[in-house]
């Protein structure tokens, strides 16, 4: 009985494959999107298909997406190959960057709070926006809810680079680099949720 219980505990996990959406028009122009949106480029569509190919042998049961158009389009391209079920979750939306949204990185990088707002994990909040800490907590709670509601499955989650950076900060993985440098369009990170300990463990980048 002890052996059976031990084996059961080992299997109490959900695997999430966290993917950044494909390249967009504004990504190409180095304009900060936040909760604004722009269409995928042709390269972005190819990157989205590559995400699906990278996880196609992992028995993906669900594809979750942010409610922003660029993520939904990427998720739809993925699901055309994976033939799973798509769920849209507003909790996965990109960080609200307020007055910074729509502006070019080259201009923002000259402003006094740029580094703290987009390279660090703090509670500094852009006007009309969301702090990195608030975004990280939101993404953590959303991913945890997804993992709990879909135990013992493999799930593809398509969302955003800055939200992913903030999530990393929330689980204690900090960097002084911005989301553009940390997470290429179409990148994938594997993440296990251990239901016994109620914790996430990053496993690898695909």
Structure report:
With 206 residues, this protein is an alpha/beta fold. Helices cover 41% and strands 18% of the residues. The protein contains nine helices and six strands; from the N terminus they run H-E-H-H-E-H-E-H-H-H-E-H-H-E-E. The chain has a six-stranded mixed sheet with strand order 3-2-4-1-5-6. A hairpin with a 4-residue loop joins strand 5 and strand 6. Helix 3 (42-55) packs across helix 4 (69-82). 41% of the residues are buried.
Order of helices and strands: HEHHEHEHHHEHHEE
* Count of beta strands: 6
Neighbour order of strands in the largest sheet: 3-2-4-1-5-6
Identify low-pLDDT runs. 1-9
The overall pLDDT, averaged over residues, is 93
| Secondary-structure content class | alpha/beta
Helix run count: 9
Q: In angstroms, what separates the terminal alpha carbons?
A: 37 Å
Structure characteristics:
206 residues, alpha/beta, six-stranded mixed β-sheet, globular
Give a summary of the structure in a few sentences.
This protein has 206 residues and is α/β, with parallel strands linked by helices. It has helices at residues 2-10, 25-29, 42-55, 69-82, 105-108, 114-119, 132-149, 161-170, 179-182, and strands at 13-20, 60-65, 85-88, 154-159, 188-194, 199-205.
Which helices and strands appear, and what pairs or packs with what?
Blueprint: H1 2-10, E1 13-20, H2 25-29, H3 42-55, E2 60-65, H4 69-82, E3 85-88, H5 105-108, H6 114-119, H7 132-149, E4 154-159, H8 161-170, H9 179-182, E5 188-194, E6 199-205
Parallel strand pairs: 1-4, 2-3, 2-4
Antiparallel strand pairs: 1-5, 5-6
Helix pairs in contact: 3-4, 7-8
């Amino acid at each position: 009985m002890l052996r059976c219980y031990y084996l059961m505990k080992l299997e109490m996990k959900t695997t999430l494959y966290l993917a950044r959406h494909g390249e967009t028009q504004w990504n190409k122009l180095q304009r900060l999107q936040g909760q604004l949106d722009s269409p995928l480029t042709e390269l972005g569509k190819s990157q989205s298909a590559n995400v699906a190919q990278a996880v196609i042998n992992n028995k993906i049961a669900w594809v979750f997406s942010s409610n922003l158009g660029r993520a939904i389009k990427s998720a739809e391209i993925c699901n055309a190959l994976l033939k799973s079920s798509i769920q849209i979750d507003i909790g996965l939306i990109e960080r609200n960057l307020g007055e910074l949204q729509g502006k070019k990185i080259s201009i923002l990088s000259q402003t006094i709070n740029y580094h703290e707002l987009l390279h660090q994990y703090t509670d500094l909040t852009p006007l009309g926006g969301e702090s990195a800490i608030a975004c990280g907590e939101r993404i953590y709670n959303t991913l945890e809810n997804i993992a709990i509601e879909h135990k013992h499955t493999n799930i593809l989650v398509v969302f955003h680079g800055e939200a992913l950076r903030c999530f990393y900060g929330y689980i204690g993985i900090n960097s002084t680099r911005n989301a553009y440098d940390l997470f290429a369009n179409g990148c994938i990170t594997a993440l296990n949720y251990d239901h016994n300990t109620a914790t996430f463990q990053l496993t690898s980048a695909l």
